[in-house]
Amino acid sequence: MAAGVAAWLPFARAAAIGWMPVANCPMPLAPADKNKRQDELIILNVSGRRFQTWRTTLERYPDTLLGSTEKEFFFNEDTKEYFFDRDPEVFRCVLNFYRTGKLHYPRYECISAYDDELAFYGILPEIIGDCCYEEYKDRKRENAERLMDDNDSENNQESMPSLSFRQTMWRAFENPHTSTLALVFYYVTGFFIAVSVITNVVETVPCGTVPGSKELPCGERYSVAFFCLDTACVMIFTVEYLLRLFAPPSRYRFIRSVMSIIDVVAIMPYYIGLVMTDNEDVSGAFVTLRVFRVFRIFKFSRHSQGLRILGYTLKSCASELGFLLFSLTMAIIIFATVMFYAEKGSSASKFTSIPASFWYTIVTMTTLGYGDMVPKTIAGKIFGSICSLSGVLVIALPVPVIVSNFSRIYHQNQRADKRRAQKKARLARIRVAKTGSSNAYLHSKRNGLLNEALELTGTPEDEHMGKTTSLIESQHHHLLHCLEKTTGLSYLVDDPLLSVRTSTIKNHEFIDEQMFEQNCMESSMQNYPSTRSPSLSSHPGLTTTCCSRRSKKTTHLPNSNLPATRLRSMQELSTIHIQGSEQPSLTTRPPPTTSK
Amino acid sequence: MGAVMGTFSSLQTKQRRPSKDKIEDELEMTIVCHRPEGLEQLEAQTNFTKRELQVLYRGFKNECPSGVVNEETFKQIYAQFFPHGDASTYAHYLFNAFDTTQTGSVKFEDFVTALSILLRGTVHEKLRWTFNLYDINKDGYINKEEMIDIVKAIYDMMGKYTYPVLKEDTPRQHVDVFFQKMDKNKDGIVTLDEFLESCQEDDNIMRSLQLFQNVM
């Protein structure tokens, strides 16, 4: 139990005297406090630094190293102290956990060293207090990612186990550095993209005159050559696209991705051009199609990480940019209107309409100032100068705001998501702990009752049944048992068979097979409780420390073994939550708990 | 342009105004810092030894550094022992029984005095304390309504998931049984003498009162 809870147990038990006159049946016996020692100071010598604390402080958490008899292995007879050859800095945090019930994570400490120490002392990192939990998780994630990257780069050098041809191709496409063939492919496609872009550009350059006609662009002069180059590039791109289409594990997802759309747009114009005849009407459309060839340059984004990041940045900042655009439009419209009406009077004014004034406003506000449209009236000049001054502000100011907004919103979203996930995990922990603590009580009850039952039926007692729980736990269970006796009700036990035995053994008033069946049906329809007492959730510090200790002991799940606690991720916690909450009251008996 | 700035700034206004009540509460808690009387006095007043008082105070001070427990903390502490049910009503009555001076907060002396009665007191004292607990309005008599409230509070602590399922009139039946036993002259209220007499006649109750002798 948590530090606080254990300290108040005597009070809670004393207060139970208030139930006695109300009770109808006799109370169960209290657990005997064997070897009750006077509280003594014990000395913990950690690598030379001596810490002292009360014995009872350490015994608050009986399933850790310091709280159990495991520490006797470290007892030094000569100096009458417990010697640990570990880091004294981290031990400070560990000891504070026993004292205050809250585990803190010191920021200067290395995360893996801290984890090692916690594992040594048998403390779950999940009970780190809220003040330090976020920091701890962040550092843990960074570390894990770094390790993963290292692992990945290591793995790249090794030879992978035999993948299918398709998988190897996909890997080659995604990571060009995996094999030489992939690298060659990568460079070849890059080269051809460059060639294609350059041909597009050079096509339009005037190439000198042919005698007898005006200056031609190169594209028309050497049209055959350019056509061959274009064909070659498109063939390469088509082959590449088809290969990429064949390789991915999920073709549907690949087709929808941006890169594949770019690929398609890059090669489509050529084929459409082939199909279309050399008709005058459609040649205009044909020309527009050639514009799309410039999209081939976006294929470079596969080759450049920076382009991808930029694209992602723009995408995530889209709303800010959209808003900037909107406010700019507002300003443009206002100033264009004003300039139009100001210049209406002057003769031969270029400001023929408001849309025509848009051009002037944009050019002025962005401080370009081409000079093709100039106001002539005095009012026009005044408003023109106001426009250019405000242009500076309008353009210059939002940009850093956007940048900082972007970074702030981005981090905020991350933090909000993190907080939401942590909150879910924390509630899950609390839920597990609550079911855990009630399970602990029910388990011990079941074991106690099974003991009685076995004695009654005369079968030899199973060794596993006679378990020893800690004194505090047995006292807590005794308290709950007294409450059951007082009210004449009992907490629902998991095993239906056992419930029947319960009713017969305890000479319950409500023994009635049919009623029992009915009760079981009713209760199995209900969902298992989610936390009902608001007081618990409002005081998470105490609860988490109290109950997550229980959860380590009592909930047996496929994922929970001690080495795995170090890597217990959010997913595992939510698995625990799901499994814990899905336990209906009539499940098969989980394996018996082992407590230290 | 001003609109641009205005809209950008509106994006930034989060609720940064801290709730004034919370600040006042915190101030209150830090100002009120109660220190108990000396150890010798407490030892004389209660049935605990010095060591026991020391252990008790260490636990108390750890939980309530300000030296007093208010009702909220009391309820939270008690609720941790009964995770399935709602212990707040019973904790409320318990708090009133501990808070003999009705100040709204329980100091260490009150706490230790009550514990001394409950754990080390005579049967008479324990029964009198229990009578005080049941007598919600502290008028010296227990009537049926008070008893029903108490019993309901106790049943609430069990929670919803019990076997057999708690029915509506179970508390009432329970109280009827209680009154049949306790109310000697059948006048509908139980006085302290009736209570003491009836409890001392019942072996179960006598035995269960001695149950927590070895706590502490």
TrEMBL record, chain A:
Subcellular location: Membrane
Keyword Cytoplasm: no
Composition-biased stretches (Polar residues): 523-548
Domain BTB: 40-139
Domain of life, source organism: Eukaryota
Short name of any one Pfam family annotated for the protein: DUF3399
UniProt xrefs under InterPro entries: BTB/POZ_dom, Ion_trans_dom, K_chnl_volt-dep_Kv, K_chnl_volt-dep_Kv4, K_chnl_volt-dep_Kv4.3, K_chnl_volt-dep_Kv4_C, Shal-type_N, SKP1/BTB/POZ_sf
Keyword Signal among UniProt keywords: yes
Primary location group: membrane
Signal peptide start and end residues: 1-16
Residue spans crossing the bilayer: 181-202, 222-243, 255-276, 321-342, 354-370, 382-403
Membrane topology: Multi-pass membrane protein
Keywords: Ion channel, Ion transport, Membrane, Potassium, Potassium channel, Potassium transport, Signal, Transmembrane, Transmembrane helix, Transport, Voltage-gated channel
Region (Disordered), start-end ranges: 523-565, 577-596
Alphabetical list of PANTHER family matching this protein: POTASSIUM VOLTAGE-GATED CHANNEL SUBFAMILY D MEMBER 3 (PTHR11537:SF182), VOLTAGE-GATED POTASSIUM CHANNEL (PTHR11537)
UniProt-recorded name of the protein: Potassium voltage-gated channel subfamily D member 3 isoform X3
Originating organism: Galeopterus variegatus (Malayan flying lemur)
TrEMBL record, chain B:
Domain EF-hand: start-end pairs: 86-121, 122-157, 170-205
Protein name (database record): Kv channel-interacting protein 1 isoform X2
Record Pfam families: EF-hand_7, EF-hand_8
Keywords from the named record: Calcium, Metal-binding, Repeat
Entries under CDD domains matching the protein: EFh
Gene name of this polypeptide: KCNIP1
Region of interest: Disordered: 1-21
Entry keyword annotation includes Transcription: no
Source organism phylogeny: Eukaryota, Metazoa, Chordata, Craniata, Vertebrata
Organism for this UniProt entry: Galeopterus variegatus (Malayan flying lemur)
